[in-house]
Design brief:
By secondary structure, the protein is an alpha+beta fold. The protein has 3 domains: 80 residues, 2-Layer Sandwich (Potassium Channel Kv1.1, Chain A); 97 residues, Serine Threonine Protein Phosphatase 5, Tetratricopeptide repeat (Alpha Horseshoe); 307 residues, 6 Propeller (Neuraminidase), CATH 2.120.10. 29% of the residues lie in helices and 28% in strands. It is built from 19 helices and 32 strands. Helix 6 runs parallel beside helix 8. The chain starts with 23 loop residues before the first helix and ends with a helix.
Length: 585
């Protein structure tokens, strides 16, 4: 090739590069906020309930699709200096404008519902999602029915599920409250139809219905025949059935007595036993046998179950979703072109096909990817699959679309450093966090983008386990000597104390942080260098008020356990279904 035809050599030192000023967005928002406070360059006034709000069309349009359509179309409002808005509360609209100009949202129980409604109309996704998360976190007896009604009207699924779950777990206490007596007949019927209703037996449901009817007897008695078929009378002993038939409510009303007697006596044979009370339990597996251990060291419960080991060949990762579904990502990578998933059937205590399309290997990974780790994460009822190349420093991701039964490609993450000993993918709020020993990244599903966050405070910290609790991510190292916590809201790290018994040795190379009953715990194996027979499983709980770790004196079976994947998961388990198999083992 002639010298003139040769391509010029470009040194790697002078190749074009892109630079991003991370402070630009923050400073830009501050400047816009200052312009609003100073009343500078405002070109439109919004009027709500007679109150006037001078604003900037550009800022409103950039933030809200509602305003963008208003000011960039042929609508009359696009040419008006003053625009009157209907359907908003002036004080709530002021809060919305404060968020638009500052990025900060102030939420409280007294204004979260109108904030959600305003955000829904203005198509402010962040405000709407934040309000729904706030409501879901504040479900209790005094708020449950109000939030239940609101979520039902506005189809806020996350809040509706939280309310239903709270009622199911606390039904006995709830059934004596004024909030329970305020339920409509349709709400009452729906609630007592739940398989997950936590009741000792069906007499608890019957007595609750009687109290509800008696609360406004003259208006509610005629509803009784339509309510009773949802009570599982067929599960009651004959003496309890006889007692119900002697109830004054049944005997005193001639018009409905015969109907009630028929329903009570015949029952509905298709109604099965309820799943009863759930117990939060951590899932570990026996390294030698492959048996699954469900444990709650706080209650002293340790139940072992065996399943078809073929289901677990090449098990990769496990995740517990927000609605308590448990999925296992499995499949032998060397012998299969597919990556199937199993789903745990709580009532049957069996693992079944998840009914989710498999991820083809050709879709999963580039052909030249040899070493990789895989993760399964759920955010807002959507499953995400992540595969990271430990050599290329790339994290490839897809999300599952349940409507099309297909896996869709998402933005990939390029790590700055592909040399690290540990990585974990976890969901917190509406985001996915990807952590390595040197980096922290956050994925925003709504915008399909990754952003880099503040890395661990100690670059050489050998993280071996991490877990999410609330809005924080906790991590600790191989020997449980250094524990740190990351606040997702402030992008800050804080150091916590390590294990107080530094004289002992942690022998398990994968200690497991886990959350049980909303408290941080850690499980690990402790022993000495001389005798492996003296190794023992230990569980500690973190006392935040005292800033120390406390030994729970757990009595796990004397076996070697491990967790599926990089995280130690807990789920709400129906213990009676486990105990049946545990007794047979």
């Amino acid at each position: 090739m002639a010298a003139a035809d040769q391509e010029p050599h470009v040194s790697s030192a002078v190749r074009p590069r892109s630079y991003q000023d991370k402070s630009h967005l923050h400073e830009f928002l501050e400047t816009v906020g200052d312009l609003q406070k100073d009343g500078v360059l405002q070109d439109v006034t919004l009027e709500v309930e007679g109150r006037r709000f001078p604003c900037h069309r550009l800022v409103l349009s950039a933030t809200s699709p509602y305003f963008r359509a208003m000011f960039t179309s042929d609508m009359a409002e696009s040419r008006q200096k003053t625009v009157v808005l209907q359907g908003f509360d002036a004080n709530i609209f002021g809060e919305i404008l404060s968020y638009i100009y500052s990025g900060t949202l102030h939420v409280s129980l007294d204004k979260v519902q109108p904030l959600y409604q305003a955000a829904d109309l203005l198509q402010l996704d962040y405000v709407r999602d934040t309000c729904s998360s706030y409501m879901a976190m504040n479900v209790e007896r005094s708020t449950c029915v109000d939030l239940y009604n609101f979520a039902d009207v506005f189809s806020v699924d996350t809040v509706l599920r939280s309310c239903v779950e709270w009622i199911d777990i606390n039904f006995f206490e709830f059934s004596f409250s004024e909030e329970f007596y305020s339920l409509s007949v349709n709400q009452l019927t729906e609630i007592i139809s739940h398989d997950e209703l936590d009741v000792k037996d069906e007499t608890t449901v019957w007595e609750a219905v009687v109290r509800w009817v008696q609360h406004i007897r003259e208006d509610r008695l005629h509803h009784l025949p339509s309510i009773l078929p949802h009570i599982r009378f067929n599960l009651l002993a004959s003496d309890k059935m006889a007692a119900i038939l002697e109830c004054p409510l049944v005997k005193e009303d001639p018009g409905s007595t015969e109907v009630i007697r028929n329903v009570v006596q015949k029952g509905n044979p298709n109604l099965k036993p309820r799943l009863r009370r759930t117990t939060e339990m951590v899932l570990l597996y026996d390294v030698n046998s492959g048996d699954l251990l469900f444990m709650n060291p706080r209650e002293g419960k340790y139940i072992t179950c065996s399943y078809n080991r073929n289901d677990y060949i090449g098990a990769i990762d496990l995740t517990v979703t927000s609605d308590n579904n448990i999925y296992v990502l499995t499949g032998e990578k060397k012998s299969s072109d597919q990556l199937p998933m199993l789903k745990y059937n709580h009532a049957g205590n069996v693992w079944e096909d998840a009914g989710v399309s498999s991820i083809s290997k050709w879709l999963r990974l580039e052909k030249d990817w040899k070493d990789y780790d895989e993760h399964l994460v759920e955010v807002d009822r959507t499953l995400y699959y992540l595969a990271e190349s430990t050599k290329k420093g790339v994290v490839w991701m897809r999300k599952y679309n349940q409507h099309t039964d297909q896996w869709q490609e998402c933005s990939q993450l390029e790590l700055d450093n592909n040399i690290y000993e540990y990585s974990a993918a976890m969901s917190c709020g509406s985001h996915i966090y990807f952590l390595t020993t040197t980096e922290m990244h956050c994925y925003e599903p709504r915008h399909d983008r990754w952003c880099k966050l503040r890395p661990l405070p100690e670059p050489n910290l050998e993280i071996r386990t991490a877990i999410v609790l609330g809005t924080e991510i906790f991590c600790t190292d191989y020997d449980f000597t250094h524990t740190v916590v990351y606040d997702t809201e402030s992008d800050c790290w804080q150091k916590l104390p390590g294990w107080p018994n530094q004289g002992d040795r942690v022998t398990n190379n994968t200690p497991g942080l886990f959350v049980l009953e909303n408290q941080l715990h850690i499980w690990f194996i402790c022993g000495n260098d001389y005798d492996d027979d003296e190794d023992e499983n230990r569980v500690y709980v973190y006392d935040r008020s005292a800033d120390t770790w406390r030994d729970l004196d757990a009595t796990l079976p004397d076996k070697k356990y491990d967790s599926y994947g990089r995280l130690c998961h807990a789920a709400r388990i129906y213990v009676p279904y486990l105990e049946v198999q545990d007794k047979d083992m």
